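A quick word before the example. In earlier lectures we treated sequence and structure as two separate objects. From today on, think of them as two lines of the same record. Here is NADPH:quinone oxidoreductase family protein written that way.
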Amino acid sequence: MVRAVVCRALGAPETLRLEEFPSRALQPGEVRVAIRAAGLNFPDVLMVSGDYQLKPELPFTPGMEAAGDVTEVGAEARGVAVGDKVIVKMRHGAFTDEAVVMPSQLTPMPSTFDYAEAATYLAGHGTAYHALIDRGRVAPGEVLLVHGAGGGVGLAAVEIGKMLGATVIATASSDEKLAIARSRGADHLVRYDREPFRDAVKRITDGRGADVVFDPVGGEVFENSMRCIAWGARLLVIGFTGGIGSAKTNLLLIKGASVLGVRAGEAVRKNPALGEIRLKALLQWAEHGKLRPNVSHRLPLEDYAKAMRLLLDRKAIGRVALVME
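And the structure line, produced from the sequence above:
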């Protein structure tokens, strides 16, 4: 029997249930993967509550990414073999012991990662890559302001921003989160509760402001970001964990600034070539030891609600993974 977290009614993480199902036979072209770890992302929580743009038909299993071992390859499935260690890319369905997928959903695991790291890599770092490279076009020497730098995508942005040659200003809510951000390359650290970040950015840049703002928080954070930007700045809207912010068009006009929405998955569905370039770069960087997700919590599958609460309560530093034992 296969265990899976099931959403039968939209609501809080505690409304989900861990259920068992018989393993189904493969259809031609399909592959069976024994899931060893699944990564949690904030969209998983939003999807379960019905607040995400993708609204799967009920019932469904949440989870966008996982890692495991190929255990069976169906007829007509190409490019994969039993025993392969793989990352599994899904729109939902990853919180389970076993997944039946197409070969196109599989990516070889970096040899430098364990299962939990592999299961928490591509969504967060892929979003940061798309934001900073495809959308923000961060250049060496520019100032990059990263909000929520203790979160999964925030830490990924710190790492990639530093690789691109930017001066990285990381903001977060605790010293512990900022210490991890520093270890991943942040040049300047700002705690939200000790100094208004817009004042800190002006101080650090001698009044010039940030060239690029990476914002997964939204709300007042987005609105205050417009008051500490340089001429020609790019404000990257990653998410809205802190609420939906309003763009002050007069501030954008005065600074010649741009507000850019970031949807890494949708961008690849619209233009698959973007995804191929991104994936190649991320896997190479991982193999060379340049990028690695910080997995602060590893919990068993049955603790799915507790794991999701870690994201909601902002207690995770980097990523959270469900580990199948």
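Notice the following. The first strand starts at residue 2 and ends at 6. We will return to this example when we discuss secondary structure assignment.
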